[in-house]
């Protein structure tokens, strides 16, 4: 697993694309695992805090409880309207969410002022990043993946 900063240092061009897509929209889709192992999708917002990509959550929300029980997540960046995707990439991240507590959580609450001082803060450790776009000549998909220590790999698919 890697922090956002480690991802950005290992794959700066890809990390810049991913960050641009995440910053282009406020709302994204987070997948977590329910108690029975089935998937749950929730809307979420993400932000950067120091070297980390983080997300907040209302106290005891289903996604927070899911992440406390099983830290695995997948995040799909909002691609925006179809016309906004022209020349852009679709972005997905996977990894593990680590809940931030104590002084660091309180500092975040003081800074961000979420609706409740009991709101959850999770640091997202990344195990995989994927971008998917269309080639310039519009003839195939271009899929780039990154994993910690594995670097980036690009595939083309018709």
From TrEMBL:
Name used for this protein in its record: Pyridoxamine 5'-phosphate oxidase family protein
InterPro entries, per database record: F420H2_bilvrd_red/Heme_oxyg, Pyridox_Oxase_N, Split_barrel_FMN-bd
Pfam families membership: PNPOx_N
Segments forming domain Pyridoxamine 5'-phosphate oxidase N-terminal: 15-131
SUPFAM superfamilies listed in its UniProt record: FMN-binding split barrel
Domain of life: Bacteria
Keyword annotations from UniProtKB, A to Z: Oxidoreductase
Organism for this UniProt entry: Saccharopolyspora oryzae
